[in-house]
Amino acid sequence: MNARGGSGGTAESGAARTTTTGRAGRRPGGPDTRGEILRAARGSFADKGFTATSIRAIAREAAVDAALVHHYFESKDELFIEAMAIPVDPRQIAARIIDGPRDELGRRIATAFLGVWESAEGQQRMKAIFRSVVSSDEVARIMREGITQMIIQPVSKVLDVPDAHLRVTLVATQLIGLAMARYLVELEPVASVDLATLIDRLGPVLQLHLTG
After folding, report:
1. Are residues 61 and 151 in the same domain?
2. If I label 117, which of 85, 87, 180, 210 is the partner at 20 to 30 A Cα–Cα?
3. In a domain, 119, yes or no
4. Would the keyword DNA-binding be found if you checked this record's keyword annotation (predicted)?
């Protein structure tokens, strides 16, 4: 008797089709899978914020397996950095700031922050981020949560004082104001002063917030 069923396929071929198809609702990687994941991530970060967004939620939105998200992006931090088009990895900035004598923290922060803005590409992308933050409450919330977790919290731990978070946040306000004045408003003479002079003047002010 013929082993084929009424549909004309063997049990083995049916199993093969099941294996190839995979789980319902999940599609394999395609030419634009990475782009779809980034679009899903931007939507999730906008709707839920950085903290409440998970890799699994992004995978569901993009209709892919969470493992595929990890194939393209090592972590949620990395996905956030690329989705928000941040020109430098904030985790690397935090690592450079932390690595060194405590009494030179202010200078290292000034050097790292201004270094991002001084390149043509970095300045273009940072200007876009700043303008988005000012014009959109959602973008402001996303950036606030991400930068707090990846930079402000690690630097606060180094200070090891009760009001460390306040101190580091005050430093952030100085940097945001400086960036607005130098790169967006182009307020003179701050806009044209050379980088070395600016770091020499700014470093001690930031250090006062941190350890003064």
Report:
1. no
2. 210
3. yes
4. yes
Range of the domain at 61: 11-83
**DSSP code, position 103:** G
Whether 17 and 60 map to the same domain: the answer is yes
Q: Distance between CA 202 and CA 106 in Å, rounded?
A: 8
Whether pTM exceeds 0.90: no
Residue 16, pLDDT score: 38
Say what angle helices 105-118 and 164-179 make with each other, to 10 degrees. Answer: 30
Output the pLDDT for position 129: 84
Residue from 22, 31, 32 nearest 65 by CA: 22
95 assigned to some structural domain: yes
Other residues' Cβ atoms within 10 Å of the Cβ of residue 160: 8
Distance CA 3, CA 145 (A): 61
Tell whether omega for the bond before 189 is within 30 degrees of 0, i.e. cis: yes
Q: Are the CB atoms for 174 and 205 separated by under 8 Å? A: yes
Last residue of a domain, one of 36, 58, 83: 83
Does the residue 113 lie in any domain? yes
Nearest to 106 by CA among 181, 182, 172, 193: 172
- What b/e string do you get for 3-17 counting C-beta neighbours within 10 Å, with b at 16 or more? eeeeeeeeeeeeeee
